[in-house]
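thread: overnight batch results

M.L. [08:02]
morning all. the overnight job finished for the chain we discussed friday. pasting input first so we're all looking at the same thing
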Amino acid sequence: MNKEHEFQRLARVWCDETEDGRGRKWLHVHPSFEQILALGVEAIPYVCRELERKPDFRWFNVLGRLTGERPNIPEGDYNLLELTGFWLEWAREHRYF
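M.L. [08:03]
and the structure it wrote out:
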């Protein structure tokens, strides 16, 4: 299985199994989350395509962990579309997307 298919499988499992909102902590200890991170920077384009297709707050932590970057937006002012724009622009500037 290639990395993109592996990412898609892991993303589907992670999103499906954390969709019920059982708590933010569960998002970050789910086995698929850890496996997505284990794909390393190669996962960044896949995450960005997913984020562009369907913006979702859960991808921001994945991108932050993979890149070490944090948006320069005051905490509490986070907005789904603004953060999505930040990450997609960042990925384009760094030629991941």
